[in-house]
Here is the input.
Amino acid sequence: MKDILKYLATFKFWKDLVIMTLGMMVAAGAVYYFMLPGKLVLGSITGLSIVVSNVLGLAGIQIKVSVVITIINAILLLLAWLLIGKEFGAKTVYTALILGPLIDLWGKILPYERLIEPGMTSVMGDPLLDLICFVLVVSISQTILFSINASTGGLDILAKIVNKYLHLDIGVSVTVAGAIICCTAFAIHPFRLVVTGLVGTWMNGLALDYFTASLNKRKRVCVISKDHERIRDFIINRLHRGCSLYEVKGGYSDEVSVEVQALLTQDEFSNLMDHIRKENIQAFITAGNVSEIYGLWNRERHHFRKEKK
Here is the structure.
């Protein structure tokens, strides 16, 4: 109990809580303004629940869609807790609980009926535009939540499980999980609507991978210079990042030098370049984008700062 109270008093808890709430506010807006009025059929737990309810109804078992949604979400939240981790499971419980109230909140702030022009059946007035807008907005929400080890719940839990155990990109995981669920809709929905849903699920995966890569993008910087010690000192003591040193030999000049290699954020890379220019350091520099980093990259920086203090 003391550990829980101690965690609740940390800055990280409150920061994540605010981020989760804002992220779910975005997701709720996507559902309320584009999915509901546009009657979009996408790979989701709600869609799967509708199919299950109808199939059970044909078998003589009458179960409300809301009950099926609750049962499936409860199973998924349990799987999230057991297979992914307690932090992810706890955060997803919170996001799942606030989705419904946030959708209602958008309805009170600005009902979508006010945005639908006469003669139009949805906010955008076209199923394709509704689909594109929904996918872009909900992908931003998913990216925000996945970045802090949380999710919007439902389908995202399945995608996270696929991502963790099959080592697929998160966007591909969302597409795979969504496509499987979406295909179940063939049992009750017209072919055209299901195909539209499959296209939307595929677009969601692409957008999610794009936003995730943009959010996680780092610069892999390689600097070859005789003043490598000054560059190393700036990276370690000013940027508080680690670096690697490699001895290299020029193929044309036959001179031996040292290459400094580091992974930096965009701002840190800009600061390094400004430092090299201001100090008139002669260097050969290459830089490339890296979208995924595994290991202790962030922890090392935090640990370094604690030691310096």
About this structure: The beta strands are 218-225, 244-249, 256-264, 284-290. The first helix runs from residue 2 to 8.
